[in-house]
Amino acid sequence: MPRTPAPPAPAALAAKVRTLGPSMTRSMQRVAETVADDPAGCAALTVTALAERTGTSEATVVRTARSLGYPGYRDLRLALAGLAAQQQSGAAPAVTADIAVDDPISSVVDKLAQEERQCLADTAAGLDTTQLEAAVAALSGARRIDVYGIGASNLVAQDLAQKLLRIGLIAHAHADPHLAVTNAVQLRTGDVAIAITHSGGTTDVIEPLRVAFDHGATTVAITGRPDAAVAQYADHVLTTSTARESELRPAAMSSRTSQLLVVDCLFVGVAQRTYESAAPALSASYEALAHRHNPKHP
């Protein structure tokens, strides 16, 4: 029987709205944005009252609650009450303003730092740790690991592959879509394939993951759109959040921060589970490269 995921924690609600909002219908967006903007007020509303406030229907309210990860509207109201309490205590961070063309560099630093903190907090709040633990377990015992990513996501894929190589696992990152599919054909049960795509709809990433899935490999998707096409070929979905896009902060830039957090969580989790072999492997790789960092002492 498929595992039913636990409803998101209150702190994850705003992150869910930011992540899933663009893929919702306009009426569902109105409901999602309303509850995120006024959790205290909406927590006191019945499903009928919230539908009236947003100019939608009761069915739309319920669908929105389920899209955000809650079994029903009652669970969403509980999360709203919890989020309202966090905001009143100052625990919920505010979203900063967009970076302007004429902002001084000091303001750019402050705004980017706050956006990065918000993005990390949103990702941590929304990350399904049960899915994460399952992915870590699969990676820890994998015969071979393929990681797929295009563009900025390939930089993250390379980061993960290099980390896993340093602890003795056989891992490769593929940016060429043809080579990715060619390698995916060779995967079998006991292997792991990981797709990294913020949009969840990148064909050059989905295709090798589908091939790996069809050949019996354990598949993992790291994506900002858990309901996107990539998820249908993923045994485990790890959801990332992202800071708001702007003219000077494109999606590729803002999604990278949350992807790197998930990658680091995977790496550390695997290193913990394989510590007896990971620690010597890390030490050996450090010693092998030490002379390159300190050439005066060969």
Give short descriptive properties of this protein.
298 residues; alpha/beta; five-stranded parallel beta sheet; 5 strands; 8% strand; globular
Report the radius of gyration as a whole number of Å: 21 Å
Shape call: globular
Low-confidence blocks of residues: 91-96
How many helical elements? 13
Secondary structure: number of strands: 5
Question: Which H/E pattern describes the elements?
Answer: HHHHHHHHEHEHEHEEHH
Sheet-strand content, in percent, reads 5-15%
What does this structure look like?
This protein is α/β, with parallel strands linked by helices and 298 residues long. 57% of the residues lie in helices and 8% in strands. The protein has 13 helices and five strands. It has a five-stranded parallel beta sheet with strand order 2-1-3-4-5, sandwiched between helices. Mean pLDDT is 85; it is low at 91-96.
Summarize this, please?
With 298 residues, the protein is of the alpha/beta class. It has helices at residues 13-20, 26-37, 39-43, 47-54, 58-67, 73-89, 105-126, 129-140, 152-166, 177-184, 203-214, 251-273, 275-293; strands at 145-149, 171-174, 192-196, 218-223, 236-239.
